[in-house]
Amino acid sequence: MAFTMTVAELIDADTSGLLAKHATWERVSLEAVAGILNGAPFDSTLFSTTEGMPLVRIRDVTTGQTNTHYTGPYEDLYLVNQGDLLVGMDGDFNTGLWGSEAALLNQRVCKLSPNEKHYDKRLLAFALPGYLAAINANTPSVTVKHLSSKTIGEIGLPLPPRAEQTRIIEKLEELLSDLDAGVAELKAAWKKLAQYRQSLLKAAVDGALTAEWRQQHPPAETGAQLLQRILTERRARWEAKQLAKFQEQGKTPPKDWQKKYPEPVQPDTSDLPELPEGWVWASVDALIDDGPQNGLYLPASLYGKGIPILRIDDYQIGWHRSRSALNLVDADEKTAEMYALNLRDLVINRVNSMTHLGKSLCTGEAMAGVLFESNMMRLRLSEHVAADYVTFYLGSDLGRERLTSDAKWAVNQASINQQDVKKTPVPFPSQVEQQRITELLSIQHEAMEQQLTAIGIALKQSTAQRQNILRAAFTGQLVPQDPADEPASVLLERIRAEQAARETPRKARGRPVKEAA
């Protein structure tokens, strides 16, 4: 949906200080100091990843680079060059300076070209995010939020004297360069921890992590033997249930009734790597006693009170919200019993963007009794399987790649079904080695979580510090005012005069009137 307030109302209601201005400054509409160009609706059938002209799409505004190319004809009007100021007009209304080679401006992205005699492009780049964030926060949405170029043009920018603009920019760049360098280091540390986590998980599930331990602790039962025991017990339980049903119905078991046993799905091991001695490839289906079962769907009107329910936004790999932070849903007793999570249940996200599809969570005590939503599925693992080990594996890059290898696409979402999950191959060691791997990973993950928490706090502090610096800049406190500067009021008059001159309609051209003879 679109923005429904006026920008002036938004500025009056602002409490952040990011939309403020010094008392000696003026305000000027963005359209008065900058050209606004909307992108063109380039034909998506002519998009390419390797050939043609680079194309700027909404997702590229913040990164400053693109992987999309356009192979058709285009007008030079829609060219974007390095350093151009862009705005994404759907979603989060992001803005950024284009940082790559010349590219084309796609629809729902606009380019701002300020007249730098009147307004410094760098000042506009610093000021704009605060206004766009405020517009975004006050734009109602059912699906995707939309920003119009009309709204962008109506933004009332703070207008300091032109010389003061330069002083503000110089001071901002001085202060923010050190801050940005520190943020870059924090993000690099975060990325390294994420990479280390994946390398650790890889070593765990290919046997390298416990290679030395395995030599010193030969198992009494190998992974292959454990799998066979699980399957034997599983079949015995099925046969016992079937015989009990025949007895209840007063029937004699028919000939070959045991042949109706649903054998677990076998994993395709043709392209899988060789495992350490004593390990075996097992399908997820072979390791579960019950499931998969898709989650609960209830209308929005039933949310707000009742029983806690787990939704896809409530967990990531290795993390979940506290029980008290979950949404509540009004479910009857029978429904609650059917969809309540038990200790050691494995929950897998079955519908999401490809980035998050297949994320998994092992239910601990804090989540016991919580319900789970329809875009997830639940599996109940055999008591002989270390649930945390399987969860760690499915959370690794290797595990998620295998889990989502046959994902189906629909619009902007991907999905996996129960059969995809059941056939997913799992490297399966002995039970004692599963437990050892889980112990080692848990220790390492706890240490990494502490480091990630510290980095997260530092990033939040950096964000707050950046906001304080920008707030000081836009309230005129960052640099002193100079009485010798041309007043902002004079600058505004000149801007308005030039704008009026541009908007003066040209006299209509027609055929010259022939004078009478």
Mean pLDDT: 91
Write the CATH fold name of the largest domain: Adenine-n6-DNA-methyltransferase TaqI, Chain A, domain 2
CATH architecture of the largest domain: Alpha-Beta Complex
- As a percent range, the share of strand residues is 15-25%
The profile of the biggest β sheet is:
5 strands, mixed
Q: In terms of topology, how is this protein built?
A:
Layout: H1 7-13, E1 26-29, H2 30-33, E2 34-38, E3 47-48, E4 53-56, E5 69-70, E6 79-80, E7 85-88, E8 95-97, E9 103-105, E10 109-114, H3 121-137, H4 149-154, E11 156-159, H5 162-205, H6 211-216, H7 223-248, E12 280-283, E13 288-294, E14 303-310, E15 315-316, E16 319-320, E17 327-329, H8 333-339, E18 345-349, E19 351-352, E20 360-362, E21 371-372, E22 376-381, H9 387-395, H10 397-403, E23 408-410, E24 413-415, H11 418-422, E25 425-428, H12 431-474, H13 488-503
Helix pairs in contact: 5-12
Structure commentary:
There is one protein chain. With 517 residues, the chain is of the alpha+beta class. It has two domains: 7-159, Alpha-Beta Complex (Adenine-n6-DNA-methyltransferase TaqI, Chain A, domain 2); 221-429, Adenine-n6-DNA-methyltransferase TaqI, Chain A, domain 2 (Alpha-Beta Complex). 38% of the residues lie in helices and 18% in strands. It has helices at residues 7-13, 30-33, 121-137, 149-154, 162-205, 211-216, 223-248, 333-339, 387-395, 397-403, 418-422, 431-474, 488-503; strands spanning 26-29, 34-38, 47-48, 53-56, 69-70, 79-80, 85-88, 95-97, 103-105, 109-114, 156-159, 280-283, 288-294, 303-310, 315-316, 319-320, 327-329, 345-349, 351-352, 360-362, 371-372, 376-381, 408-410, 413-415, 425-428. The protein has a five-stranded mixed β-sheet with strand order 3-5-4-9-6, with no helix packed on it. A four-stranded antiparallel β-sheet has the order 2-10-7-8. A four-stranded antiparallel β-sheet has the order 13-22-18-20. A hairpin with a 6-residue loop joins β7 (85-88) and β8. The relative contact order is 0.13. Residues 507-517 have low confidence and may be disordered.
